[in-house]
Amino acid sequence: MQRHLLRRRALLASAGLAAAAPALAACGPDIASDEDAGASHLLKAPDRTEGEITIWDRSGDLFEVFEGVIADFNAKYPDIKVNHVAVDIDAKLQNTLITGADVPDGVFLDDAKVGGFTDYLWDLGDVLAPYAADIAPQKLDVNTVGGGVYGVPFDLDPGLLFYNATALEAAGIDVDAIATYDDLLQAARDYQAAVPGSAPIHLEQSAFLGQLQLEMYASQLGTSIADADGNLRLDTPEFERILTFLDTVRQEGLGTRAEYLTPTDIAELDNGNQVFYPWAIWFSFAPQQVLTETAGDWRATQLPAWDAGGARSGAMGGSSFVLPKDGKNADLAWLFYEFLMFDEAGYTAVWGPGDVYPEGLATSIPSYTPAADPAKPLYSGITALGGQDLWTVATEAGAQIPGGTPTPAWWTGAVDYLGNDVQRMLDGDMTPQEVLAQASEDIQTNLVDRQ
Fold first, then answer.
1. By three-state DSSP, how is residue 44 classified?
2. Under DSSP, is residue 179 helix (H, G, I), strand (E, B) or coil?
3. Could you give the CA distance from residue 317 to residue 403 in angstroms, rounded to a whole number?
4. Separation between Cα atoms, residue 254 and residue 252, nearest integer Å
5. Angstrom distance (rounded) from CA 247 to CA 240
6. Interhelix angle 2-9/61-76, nearest 10 degrees
């Protein structure tokens, strides 16, 4: 389970997600007449509640969570049979959609990949309309391509600042005083003075995860590497500011350079050398299931802001549910996802205490704001976080995430340039300005212009 969860949370992407083949003719639900061909891409809610659906999810923790909700779904829809199949989606989905053979009715998909498959997916604008005003804007934005909405938003993954409360208290560091990234730098300097040889702030060594974290920082500033039209907007003052912060951590020796939850990373977390981890909420998995010496010492708070009074969170990762046009019963699959995400019985079963997560699914929060009500927690005290009420911290952070843009189909390919160049900067081989100039040129030439 650990290996799978890390892979899922990291949004590991296969190459070539931009589908070059023309859109397949839909052979799923008949939703429009020939006279209404302009709306033929829009899924309509079914006027039936019986049939059979095939749902693809990855194996692992979330597969088991969704599996456990099927009985609740069938209590409401007893005549819809759910075939829930564990699939290596990265390896299988693209070819399945292109060939049109054995296409599932619904698929769990990383937000970063939705934009590469829209030719093969139903536009869900109509069925989501009753809920759209109550969906986190960032999640609705990342699923919107060319005016169509192609995913049912699942989780919201707000960025948080995780910290070793025990170690910081012993060093006399007041976490409540960290309001900006400048404050974080000073707190790291103070901790290093109290604990010589420590490197308090996590510096991500994976090119992919480093780029994903970079987008979290950019999200706080209301930007991303591509705008709503897919145009590159990397070489900007906002990204220069972020990279300068990371380069300062490197230059001053304030960072532990390690890949997320590899043995080196875990060791430095457990020995008290690495005490600040700006990351998505899914880092909570570490104290719950990975850390041994410091489990119970960690807490979470809002990210620092870039400027006083600025946003204290940004989005990092996330997934949604998509409905392929060639799925035979995609309209019935919509009822399944509608239940999971927008019905109180469904989202309570997903995020509340259960067999897989006895204290609740505390690695994300719902993207549907009525389900993410700070006053109505679906999970509360997390033992591995010293009993902290992570729900309140996360929902308050999630409410501060600015809106976003759809992830361009070339985002994963950009790791070969931007992600790798950020790592070269952390090696001391490039300046922030050189990273932005070089990566922008390479991404534009090798990815954007070749679409």
1. coil
2. coil
3. 14
4. 5
5. 10
6. 80
Please count the other Cβ atoms lying within 10 Å of the Cβ belonging to residue 81. 15
pLDDT in tens, 291-334: 999 999 999 999 999 999 999 999 998 999 999 999 999 999 99
Write the pLDDT tens digit of every residue in 40-73. 799 999 999 999 999 999 999 899 999 999 999 9
Look at residue 10 in the predicted model and tell me its pLDDT.
41
* Amino acid identity, position 163: Y
Predicted local distance difference test score (pLDDT) of residue 5: 39
| Tokens matching residue 291 | 């850390």
Distances (CA, A) of 167 to 10, 153, 175, 283: 27, 37, 11, 18
pLDDT at 7: 36
Cα separation, 201 vs 84, whole angstroms: 41
Q: DSSP letters along 193-256, please?
A: HHSTT---EEEE--HHHHHHHHHHHHHHTT--SB-TTS-B--SSHHHHHHHHHHHHHHHTT-EE
Dihedral, 96, 98, 101, 104 alpha carbons, nearest 10: 50
pTM: 0.86
Give φ, ψ of 433 to 5 degrees: -65, -40
Residue 237: CB atoms within 10 Å? 10
Q: What is the DSSP string of 347-398?
A: HHHHHSS-SS-TT--TT-EESBTTTT-TTS-SS-EEGGGTTEEHHHHHHHHH
Q: Tokens 């974080």 belong to which residue?
A: 184
- The CA-atom distances, in angstroms, between 134 and each of 139, 372, 399 are 11, 10, 11
d(CA 75, CA 77): 6
Task: Report CA 113 to chain centroid distance, whole Å.
Answer: 11
How far is residue 312 from each of residues 21, 240, 303, measured CA to CA in Å?
A: 41, 19, 5
Which residues, 6+ apart, have CB-to-CB distance to 90 below 8 Å?
Answer: 12, 13, 14
Q: Does the pLDDT value for residue 12 go beyond 60? A: no
